[in-house]
Structure prediction request, 314 residues.
Amino acid sequence: MQQLFITMRNTFARAVIAERKYKGRKELGQPLLGNRHGNAAGSGAIVMWLLLASLLSVLFGFAMAASPHLQSRLLPAAGLALSFALLAWFLRGVSRSGAAAGALIALTVTDVGGTPIFAVLVVVFVLTWLATRLGRERKQRLGIAERPRGRNGAQVLANLWASAMAIVLSLVLPWSYAFRVAALAALAEAASDTVSSEIGEAFGKRAWLITTAREVPVGTDGGVSAVGIFAGLLAAAVIALMGMLVVSTSDAYIVALCGFAGMICDSFLGAWFERRGWMTNNVVNFSSTCLAALLGFVIARCCSGADSSSLFAR
Prediction:
């Protein structure tokens, strides 16, 4: 069974390298594997994202080896994950490497979290896919439209790795419930940030830099708009409502709050670091989802009736 994860990881690696060769970008000094503004892949960046994918695969393989229950539902989860990844690729929501990374993420969250968390993941994809396509002509005129081939593997990992890792940690460490809240918070942040950015770029008339309130062109890193903030808040609320399939109704507010807070953090990081070239969009997204997950975990531990069960406590 662990061979399946090795195969998926290697498929992701081959897709990443193929995309890089296809684009003819072989520079070694570039910072990350393609962000939404078109940064090319550097060799160090490819290694970084492959290490993150490998870490997730190894930890999940460890959890699965210790749990006959996970082993028994691996094949159905793999079927759902692969079908989801292929559909996302067919709809041009992701590239080849994005589909491979998405399949790994979907397999992990589905096998560990079950179909409820998979349903939340699907809603995240639907929200971001629709938001990306709204107002595309305007985004193209502004030069800020997402690439037609869809988000690549690095973008998928940057947005979804934190949620998948939290789901796996809910099995191998205590505080299982709090880790599930953390996973949902990371998904809420990913949906909130993407929807906020895409809707703001599509329909926002004016934007302001979040750190200084100075008016900036729509699409500027760290820029926010009223319509974008409202759309992001709504997206976080939708994921929180879907999250009630996984956590208690009384804790849904944690998911929405942390998702929205992560979106605001993303804007600050964009204004402070991305505009100066110190971070790429992928690093900003990765940092923001991790922060949302951490915040969700802490609040769940402090303010909810989170249990302390784990794979080894059962």
Observations:
- Confidence is low (pLDDT under 50) at residues 22-41, 308-314.
- The radius of gyration is 18 Å.
